[in-house]
Each structure stands twice: as structure tokens, then as C-alpha cells.
Design goal:
Layout (H helix, E strand, L loop, with lengths): L8 H6 L15 H51 L2
InterPro entries: Rossmann-like_a/b/a_fold
């Protein structure tokens, strides 16, 4: 949104205002920066969700392995006791 006033009036009056030529970031503005931040945040949140799902799946698999090991142990003790 263009400004309705010149924010550089005072520096111009003081003689310290200088315009610079084209450079690599001359097209970057606040809206673009915010957009990049939001995109990065979305990617971060997606990674965190994926990690959460993975951790939940791994925990369930580990619980299943522990229960299977306990079951094998119980069956082994029962066979030895006969």
C-alpha cells in the first residue's frame, strides 16, 4: 500500500538522504518478508507434525515388541515348567 506522505522528508531536508541504485534486494518489501516467514513456518509445522506421527508410530511398535517379548517369555516358562 503506497504511503500518502514522504517518510524521507526530514533526511532530505538534512541533506543526508541518498538513493542507491538497483541491487539484489531492491524488490524485497515487508509483505514479501512476511510471506516468506509464513511459508517457512508452514514447512516447520508440517515437519513437526510428521515427527509427531513418526514418534507415535514408533512408540506403538515398541509397545507391541515389548508385549510380544513378554508373551514369548511367559510361553517359554510355561513350556519349561511342564
Amino acid at each position: 500500500m503506497p504511503l500518502t506522505y514522504d517518510p524521507y522528508t526530514e533526511p532530505k531536508e538534512m541533506g543526508i538522504y541518498r538513493e542507491i541504485g538497483e541491487h539484489a534486494f531492491s524488490e524485497v518489501n515487508a509483505a514479501e518478508i512476511v510471506q516468506r516467514i509464513m511459508k517457512s513456518r508452514d514447512m516447520y509445522e508440517a515437519r513437526q507434525r510428521a515427527k509427531g506421527v513418526k514418534a507415535h508410530t514408533e512408540a506403538a511398535a515398541r509397545r507391541r515388541e515389548v508385549m510380544e517379548e513378554e508373551q514369548r517369555k511367559v510361553e517359554s516358562e510355561r513350556v519349561e515348567g511342564q
